[in-house]
Design a protein that fits this description.
By secondary structure, the chain is mostly beta strands. The protein has strands at 8-14, 20-31, 37-46, 51-60, 70-77, 82-93, 99-108, 113-124, 130-138, 144-155, 161-169, 175-186, 192-201.
């Protein structure tokens, strides 16, 4: 458009041997006066160009930094059949635009609420990666199901997580289990070719 925003972006991903893995096509159907996308369609295709899945995304309440107050993502399979939808309400940001608190609501293909997750992010580094994330999962009635705290202990220079500790608690806050994750041999897309998981029970004993 006149502001230099692309109406269509195609991204091709390759493995380290140069083999095409998949193709992602993003179509910006509508933007605001500052070029922020209001409506998008993102389609993922296999290496032969066949659609695998697609998402239609609507953003609203965009602030001066380009952060939307609300995003709705409707997900479809390769044949265009609706799978589910995710509504994200971003309720607070820090001065750099990092999301501090948000609520994620997942609905099934009929529009019925499946789950609600309240997310709190803390201790951001200069790359915008949080040091700690707390996710509180609730059922459709609002009853807490579980609480998950994730500590990113070590990141590489691109912001990919190398070492992480995830603690799952019940609704009362009692520890159920802890998983220590170590990622290594990351490729250009940030995917770890090697991952080591150590699971511990509520007593801290390896299981």
């Amino acid at each position: 458009d006149a502001r230099g925003n692309a109406g269509r972006v195609e991204r091709r991903s390759f493995d380290e041997a140069g083999k095409l893995l998949d193709i992602q096509v993003t179509e910006n159907l509508k933007t605001d006066s500052r070029g922020n996308p209001l409506e998008q369609v993102v389609t993922l295709k296999d290496e032969k160009g066949k659609a695998i899945s697609s998402s239609r995304i609507s953003n609203s309440g965009i602030d001066a930094r380009g952060n939307p107050a609300k995003s709705v993502r409707d997900n479809f399979d390769g044949d265009g059949k609706r799978i589910d939808s995710q509504e994200t309400a971003n309720t607070s940001f820090d001065y750099r635009g990092n999301i501090l608190t948000q609520t994620l609501t997942t609905k099934d293909e009929t529009g019925k609420v499946v789950s609600v997750v309240d997310v709190v992010n803390e201790d951001f580094n200069t790359r915008g990666s949080p040091g700690k994330t707390t996710r509180t999962t609730k059922d459709p009635s609002g009853k807490v199901i579980e609480i998950q705290e994730t500590l990113n202990k070590k990141l590489d220079k691109r912001g990919n997580v190398l070492e992480q500790v995830t603690t799952t608690k019940d609704a009362a806050g009692a520890v159920l289990r802890t998983v220590e994750t170590v990622n290594s041999e990351l490729d250009s897309r940030g995917n770890a070719h090697r991952t080591s998981l150590t699971t511990k029970d509520e007593k801290g004993e390896v299981v």
